[in-house]
Amino acid sequence: MPSSQFAHKEKYRYQNGFNSYHESEAVEGALPIGANSPQKPPYGLYAEKLSGTAFTAPRHENQQTWLYRVLPSCGHSNFEPRESSTYNTNPENKPYEKIHHIPNQLRWDPFDLDETVDWVHSLHLVAGAGDPTMKQGLGMYIYAAGKSMDAKEAFYSADGDFLIVPQHGVLDIRTELGRLLVRPNEIAVIPRGIKYRVDLPDGPVRGYILELYQGHFQLPELGPIGSNCLANARDFQAPIADFDEDTETEWHVLCKFAGHLFSARQGHTPFDVVAWHGLYYPYKYDLARFNTMGSVSFDHPDPSIYTVLTAQSDHPGTAVADFVIFPPRWLVAEDTFRPPWYHRNTMSEFMGLIQGQYDAKTGGGFQPAGASLHNVMAGHGPDASTHEKASNAELQPRKVGEGSMAFMFESCLMVGVTDWGLKKCKKVQEGYNAESWEPLKPHFKRPTPAKIDNGVDGKDGVIGDKAQVPHWTS
């Protein structure tokens, strides 16, 4: 059965389908029939439209959802800056803290758990590119929290969509549109603007987040693969409507806006959506359901065959963000160096490890809860020990990655590293290159005797043969 065996069992029900038009009602009859905004919605509810794209976006890109709630979202006090001197996930706005653009390969030791903070305060921007105020680019975060959010608190990001990749611990996420239980080896996407709160039913949590400032995630095109495989649309799960009727308690709504934290008060719960319908909603996905593709003859295909979700730039085939995984899979290619080849890439590659050991980095330096960044045109590939083993391995069919799950956030943008990611976290491995690639040894051997056949006078060339100029000279 292609699904993860989770220790923490599922407790919610879902609707299945990616980019499917869903509708859900917690009270039968709460959804209007044939109209979105009747003069008097059922049961005295308020109709509210949530738009994730411009009204005039092409139909195939348009994402919006109609909510039917006890009170509309606008019923709150003014937002006020909160913790403005310490909470900042857009450091280019601070002259004394900036993004560092450096060509070095980087790798981080496992990031620490922090049991003193909740979800909102656990977010640390490690790297990124672009600017949320221009809706361009992306941010790459580590989260590590030890406390549930306050019972009367909700959070949303106005800056972008959160793609959440848990590495340790369980996230019980209550959103305006319903509930998601998200465990390691699952991912969740919370679109821009949707309010939610995070409980930690099993204690401390840790993981990774890619915040997409522009556009939304889509399934990659399959081309000649056909109509199925990779991540299948039916395996994505969206919540069903679930609401509270609380119009007397004070709530605090936290907003991440241009990288800064703001807070507003309101006298009612934000989780009062009785029914909804549309295309703009949170969802989750079990990575074990990914149907991998690979070579059954020779050569290692490009890692794009492991893309789960993509967000394309204005140039088709070039992604602002790809989410790629390296799950357990069979390798059968003949006469082939089977790990990923050495390469330099116009794309930036930020890698993380959820569990196990990544098959291209067997030296022990790339660990669960750690990360690496190979920026634009930074050479990288298997470490020396992995190369040696793979170059001499007996090429029988072999399954790799058992009990492992590595992933990659890939982007066409040049990714910069924050002060926190480069210095304050104190996790950067200073000897990454020295450990991984400096031990590589040359194996080149000139043929003996050295000669060249270029067809001059029908004779093989020899060193010093003047007829071979400019190819061979003494």
UniProtKB/TrEMBL annotation:
InterPro entries: HgmA_C (IPR046451), HgmA_N (IPR046452), Homogentis_dOase (IPR005708), RmlC-like_jellyroll (IPR014710), RmlC_Cupin_sf (IPR011051). The keyword Translocase does not apply. The keyword RNA-binding does not apply. GO terms for cellular component: cytoplasm. Pfam families: HgmA_C, HgmA_N. The active site is at H300. Residues 13-287 form the Homogentisate 1,2-dioxygenase N-terminal domain. It comes from the Eukaryota. Residues 454-463 have a biased composition (Basic and acidic residues). GO terms for molecular function: homogentisate 1,2-dioxygenase activity; metal ion binding. Homogentisate binds at Y358, H380. Keywords: Dioxygenase, Iron, Metal-binding, Oxidoreductase, Phenylalanine catabolism, Tyrosine catabolism. One of its GO terms (biological process) is L-phenylalanine catabolic process. Pathway: Amino-acid degradation; L-phenylalanine degradation; acetoacetate and fumarate from L-phenylalanine: step 4/6. Residues 443-474 are annotated as: Disordered. Its cofactor is Fe cation. Its EC number is 1.13.11.5. Belongs to the homogentisate dioxygenase family. This is homogentisate 1,2-dioxygenase. It comes from Didymosphaeria variabile.
